[in-house]
Amino acid sequence: MRRILMLTMAATLLMPVMAQGQARKPPPKPARPAAIVQKVIPPKAVYWLSAQTMTGFGMGGNMPSPGDMMRMAMSGQQPGAMAKSLSLDLGGKLPVATQPPLARHLIPAGMNMGDLLFLKSPQRAAATPSEPEDYEPPKGRVLLFWGCGETARPGQPVVIDFAKMAAGQVPHGLFAGERVRIARPPSYAGWPNHGHWPNDDRASRQGVPANASLIGDHAVRGNYVPEIDFSLTKDFMAALNLDQKKAPSGAIAMSWNQLPEATGHFASFMGGEGDDPAKGATLVFWSSSESQAFISALGDYIASAEAARLVGTKQLMPPTQTNCAIPKEVMAAAPNGLVSLVAHGPEENFLFPPRPADPKIAWDQQYAVKARFVARAGGPAGMNMAEMMGGDDEDRPRRSNRRGAKPKCSDRPSAGDAVGDMIGGLLGGRRKKAEDCDPS
């Protein structure tokens, strides 16, 4: 009995201490409410303006073609002159109440192209079986060089055999050195309705005047898009002037003017000589990238943030760099070829309406607009603009008044024609025949 009484008294003394210990424990935290995820509704329309300034035979892309190289001369402009081009692409999701889909771009007066540009929608033609063409399997090889300097780096060139590639034997790491994020404008294939300029309207035939300015208020109206309004503060880039000098070693030293709006530079060369009927042509490709690049996307439109990343990886030259040399080994392998230089430029982006601050309100985007800018220069390797403007009148391409007229036959193909034929032979395709030109 005495033992029970002592245990009871001990428990009575310990209860306040136990209670005090329990009181010191923090109260359980209340459960946090789930974060509100704002609903984002993609835009009903996307509009892209791609503005390009070209000097010399500026190329529309990084793959040179005779058509791109001769465009300025065929339009009556002297090689070496500065020209501007504009590509407009509109994608819309709204249903078309009354066919056909129609859209127009109301432009500022500073463009000197009238009041508006028609964005025409091509009809979706039904697929028809194509006629068989004379096809030759790909053959020949490519000698791949990269990096600025009078002398090629050790381990160059990398030799690519196209016949082996066609058989599935792709060289290991052919595209390993290049990772380029390229955004694509709205297209005929990806949108229910698509409008494009240039097309066959009068303004397209006249082209973009040299004094055109994009700065100012723009508007897009159509029956498959909401009303689009935006104002540009950036304009066509200034002319990119390329100077080439042949060094005693055989290398070609290139230099150019620095454009304040440039975000990075990329230079490339493509050429070759000879076309062995049995073995095919040898095509020589060089780029200014510090890592291996082949038929590169580095010459395409590149966003500013991506350009900064590529400058960091030395795939693009910095915007402050104004010189580069094509190695002597490149020119020894291909004395004749085409040089292309691109200065990547800025962008302007618009998204309407602005994002609501309250996450409970859905962000119903009506339209997105992107304006992007680039400057290009190019021409035959080792030839400056003044030399390109010279020559006899008989050597200059003449503009034909007949729509769809065949080019004149010539015993002296241009550098663009030679490279184009070699590319066709390497990749396989229809060979150019005598009847493909006009002998008159």
Summarize it.
This protein has 440 residues and is α+β, with helices and mostly antiparallel strands.
Give the fraction of residues assigned to helices: 10-25%
Shape category: globular
- The tally of helices reads 8
Strand order, sheet with most strands = 7-6-14-13-16-18-2-3-8
Can you describe what's shown?
The protein is an alpha+beta fold and 440 residues long. 17% of the residues lie in helices and 29% in strands. It has eight helices and 18 strands. The chain has helices spanning 2-24, 66-74, 162-166, 202-206, 304-312, 328-333, 385-389, 415-427; strands spanning 40-41, 45-56, 82-92, 103-106, 116-118, 141-146, 158-161, 193-197, 216-222, 228-232, 242-246, 252-256, 264-276, 280-287, 323-326, 337-352, 363-364, 367-380. The strands form four sheets. It has a nine-stranded mixed beta sheet with strand order 7-6-14-13-16-18-2-3-8. The protein has a four-stranded antiparallel beta sheet with strand order 5-4-9-10, with no helix packed on it. A hairpin with a 5-residue loop joins strand 11 (242-246) and strand 12. Helix 2 runs antiparallel to helix 8 (415-427). The longest helix is centred in the N-terminal third of the chain and has 23 residues, at 2-24. The radius of gyration is 31 Å and the shape is globular.
